[in-house]
């Protein structure tokens, strides 16, 4: 088979099958579709998996992050230190609480917050750190947790990409006060829309449960998980560890196929005390941003599931003060006197995040049953497309 037709057979993700069909039919027949016993069962299974005391199912990770901050009493005039390199939900949850995101740059190894830069961002207003494990690569959660402890800050982990990833033998999502996971369709546990929070703090777990579902006398939300999502979550969780190993095998094999190229490499986890789950493979390219985007377009047209990594969040429209939302801009509150008081987000600079978010890394999905033949076809595609696209050194990056 030629490489182009092999690429067209790249597996879709997810591929729901008979087991899922039986499970959702059972829910339908039960006539109980909103959160009940299936959600409770999933929560128990997820808490066991995390080796955490509690797990709480929610409608999606954006809700989970918002609930976590609300339950932890992070609000007006508080600051949360966060990465500029993530999906907007890691930051919009802070704005939803009328708190102020204070961005700090990432490090190139893990693509997570650089622990060395965090302390310079701490002010008397700082209440929490939001740590994101991008593409399934564990951020330096142990070091960040220590900084949080030393400064009496709360650590929240957005582990949306990283169920099953570990650092020092501990699951990501257990280093902070809470860990939040996305079960959105594209994710490793794929339920359409869904999410789950893990925590060891009983009081926080109980508060999250109250705020999740109308909360009686506390202002709260309806952020419940559905029974459909819960049964799909149970199935996804039962397969997660084997599927994570498959993704890791694919990452290693693709790295071996590209090992002699000086313009493309797979970002493998190099620490011996960490395991990445390769929710997406970080494919790093030594070509200009514009050529990387052209390459990405050709990948997508050829049937390869890939995306550009996030755009730097401090430049997101949420931070341009002209179209002021009705609820105001937390960093312009008259009572706010912290790090962003006299600053504009668009004037900030995060060299590492800007370098990596703008095209240097593409996300490549190798969910099961992606085969070694698919990866061989992909390597062939990459070589041919690269030589067609890149004419001279002007198309390369300066600092590879
Ligand atoms: C890092 C990260 N956090 C949070 C979310 C939000 O997840 P959800 O779609 O479940 O709200 C996403 C979504 O892709 C994400 O990538």
- Fraction of residues in H or I helices: 25-40%
Q: Say which CATH homologous superfamily of the largest domain is assigned.
A: Type I PLP-dependent aspartate aminotransferase-like (Major domain)
What series of H and E elements makes up the topology?
A: HHHEHEHEHEHEEEEEHHEEEHEHEH
User: How many extended strands?
Assistant: 14
Uncertain residue ranges: none
CATH topology name of the largest domain, in short, is Aspartate Aminotransferase, domain 2
Folded structure, characterized:
With 400 residues, the chain is of the alpha/beta class. The protein has two domains: 3-11 and 235-309 and 356-395, Aspartate Aminotransferase, domain 1 (Alpha-Beta Complex), CATH 3.90.1150.10; 18-234, Type I PLP-dependent aspartate aminotransferase-like (Major domain) (Aspartate Aminotransferase, domain 2, 3-Layer(aba) Sandwich), CATH 3.40.640. Helix content is 37%, strand content 14%. It has a seven-stranded mixed β-sheet with strand order 1-9-8-5-4-2-3, with helices on both faces. Helix 9 (227-257) packs across helix 12 (372-389) and helix 10 (289-301) packs across helix 12 (372-389). The mean pLDDT is 95. It binds pyridoxal-5'-phosphate. Pyridoxal-5'-phosphate binds next to helix 4 and helix 5.
